Amino acid sequence: MPQSPRMTAKSPRRMWLSRVTLGLALVSLFFSSVPTPPAHAAGSRPLFQVPFSCGEEWKASTYPGHGGVDWNWGVGADDLGRPVAAAAAGIAHTKYHSGYGYYVDVDHGGGWVTRYAHLLSGGRAEGPVAQGATIGKVGSTGRSTSPHLHWEQRADGVSQSTLYVEGTRVQPDGRTYISRNCPRRNPLLAGDVDGDGDGDIVARFVRRDGTSSVKVLHGSVSGSQDAIVGRRLKPPALPPTAILAVADTTGDGRADLNAAYAHAGGVHLASFKGRRDGTFGRKVSRAFRDRWSFRRLKTLRSGDVDGDGIDDLVVRFVGAEGTTVVRVARGSAGERMRTSTALRASAAALRPGGVITVGDTNGDGRGDLNVAEPRGGGIQIASFYGRPDGTFGGRTRRMSADTWVWKRLKYFGSDDIDGDGVDDLVVRMVRADASSTVTVLRGGSARALSVRAASHLQPSDLPAAAVLTLGDTTADGRSDVNTAHARNTGVAFSTLAGGVTAELTTPRVRFYSGTWDYHRLC
Fold it and tell me: Residue 233 is inside which H or E element, if any?
C-alpha cells in the first residue's frame, strides 16, 4: 500500500473535544438542509489535494455525523485569514448559508464537488479555478465557534463520510497533513549540471524556515546514482514560492538552476550557474519586469525556442479573463536576458487550465510550446511551433484522445525518449485506484503525433503521489522517466529507461535516502 506523503506523527497542539459540542452538532443539522442538485451517477473521484498552500501543515479532525473534516493550522485566531486552495481544478460558485456561513463549492465534473465553509466574506472565487488556486480565506462565519475550514467532498450532492487526498484516506483524528497542493512549482527537475554528457536529477526541498536545500543526483550508466548537496539557499536568495527550471541558459554546456519569483511588485528571473563539480554557483540576476504580475504567473518552462543552441526561459501568464500571454527570456552568455512577448492567445485558443511543456516535437531544431487541455470530455494536444525570432506560431492540433479523462492528468512533459533527435511528449494519467498509465507520444515532422503503447503501473511501482521529470540519466542517448516518491521514512528515486522504439522499462530504484523528508520536496 502506498505511503501517505503528507502525514506526520505530531502530537495535537490543542484539545479537539472543544469542537465536539452541542453547538457543532446543530451545525450538522443546518448543513443537511442545504439544497443539493438532482442525483446522477457520479464518476471516479478526482485526485484531491490538501486544500491549502503548498508545504503548509494542517490538522484534520471530525466527530460523528459531521459529514466532513475540520482543518486547523494553529490555535485560537491563528487560522483567521489564511488562504484556502482548490483541491482540484473546477468551476467555483460562491454561496452563503446560515450554517456554513460564506462558502465556496468547486464543481469538478462527474458529480463531484468540494465544499469550503466558514470563509471570510471577501476574496472568494467565482468561475473557473485551477488546482491550488486561492478560492477564499479561513474565517468563522455561520455556525462556527472559532476560525477553521470545514471541508467536504460531495458526490451527486451527498457529503462523503470518508475523504481522500492524493488517493489516501484522511484520518481526521488530529493528525497533521502537509499540503502538496503545488500547481506552480516543479520539485523534481533534470539537466546536465556538471557538463559530462549525462543528465542529472535536481530535487528541491523546502524547510520550515523557508530555506531551500537543492540536491543533485548525478546521472550514470551504472544502476545507482550519487547524491550531493548542490546548494542551500535562504529565502532572500531563493524564496520558497519561486518557480524553478533547470536548463543551460548561459550556453556553457552546463545546466543552470533558473528561478522566477515575486520581487518589488514584479517578477525577477535569476540563475545559479551549473559548475563542473555538479553544484550550483552564486546567484546571478538575469531579468526583472515590474509590470509582470507574479500572481498571474502560471508556468515556467525552458527550451531552445529560437534554435541558437542556448536554452531560453518560457514564462506563461494567465489574465483574469483567461487570456494567456507567453513571454520568452532569451538565453545568452552574458548575465542579462532579453525578454519579449512570444505569444498572445485567447481562452479559446489556449485554455487557462491547460498544461504546457516546451520541446522540439517537430524536429526543426527549435523548441515548441506544447499544450494538453480538456476538450469535449477528453484531452486535446496541440503545438505552437517555435520560430527563429524567439516567438511561437499559430496553434497546430496534434492529437485528441476522447478516452483520456482530463481530471486524471498528473504529468505532461517533453524530451527525446527514443533518441531519434526529435522530442517526444510524455503523459501520465492516474486512475481512481491510484494506478498510473504513462504514454509516450512520438514527435516528428508529421502533424499528428504517433502514440506509443502505454505503460500501466501499480501504486507499488509508481505511487499516485510520485513526482516525475524527464532526462537522460542513464547516459545512453535516450531520455528516461525519472521519479521520486515517499518510501518508509525517506525518498526513493527511480527510473523508467527509454528505449529505441519509445518503450519504457519497468521502474528501477536508483537512489534512496532515509533522511530526506518527502514532505519537503516542493
Answer: strand 226-233
CB-based contacts of 151: which residues, under 8 Å, 6+ apart?
Answer: 51, 68, 69, 70, 71, 87, 114, 115, 116, 117, 163
Q: Is 502 exposed, middle or buried (0-12, 13-18, 19+ CB in 10 A)?
A: buried
Least confident of 126-130, 186-190, 237-241, 493-497: 126-130
**DSSP-assigned states of every residue in 500-518:** TTS-BPPPEEEEEETTS-G
Count the neighbouring beta carbons within 10 Å of the beta carbon of residue 513: 17
Number of C-alpha atoms within 13 angstroms, CB side, residue 81?
2
| Banded pLDDT at 225 (limits 50, 70, 90) | low
Give the distance from CA 37 to its chain's centroid: 31
Q: Residue 342: which pLDDT band, with cuts at 50, 70 and 90?
A: very high
Around Cβ 447, how many Cβ atoms within 10 Å? 11
Which residues, 6 or more positions from 54, have their beta carbon under 8 angstroms from its beta carbon?
Answer: 132, 179, 180, 181, 182, 184, 185, 522
Complete domains list, the chain, with CATH: 7-178 (2.70.70.10), 188-520 (2.120.10)
Count the neighbouring beta carbons within 10 Å of the beta carbon of residue 245.
27
Of the ranges 10-19, 340-349, 482-491, the best mean pLDDT one: 340-349
**Interval 289-304: pLDDT, tens:** 998 988 788 899 999 9
**Which has more confidence, 36 or 174?**
174
- 24 φ, ψ to 5°? -70, -30
> For 143-194, how does the pLDDT look when each residue is reduced to its tens digit (9 = 90+)?
999 999 999 999 999 999 999 987 789 999 999 987 877 655 678 999 999 9
Half-sphere exposure of 108 (CA within 13 A, CB side): 27
CB neighbours of 503 closer than 8 A, spacing ≥ 6? Answer: 440, 452, 453, 455
Specify the pTM. Answer: 0.74
C-alpha cell at 490: 525517506
Using H for helix, E for strand and C for coil, what is the string for 209-232?
Answer: CCCEEEEEEECCCCCCCEEEEEEE
Residue 258 and residue 271: Cα distance in Å, rounded?
4
d(CA 439, CA 205): 28
**For 268-295, how does the pLDDT look when each residue is reduced to its tens digit (9 = 90+)?**
999 999 999 999 999 999 999 998 988 7
Residue 126 DSSP SS3: coil
Q: Does residue 350 carry a pLDDT above 80?
A: yes
Which H, E and C letters describe 138-171, residue by residue? Answer: EECCCCCCCCEEEEEEEECCEECCCCEECCEECC
Phi, psi angles (nearest 5°) of residue 292: -90, 130
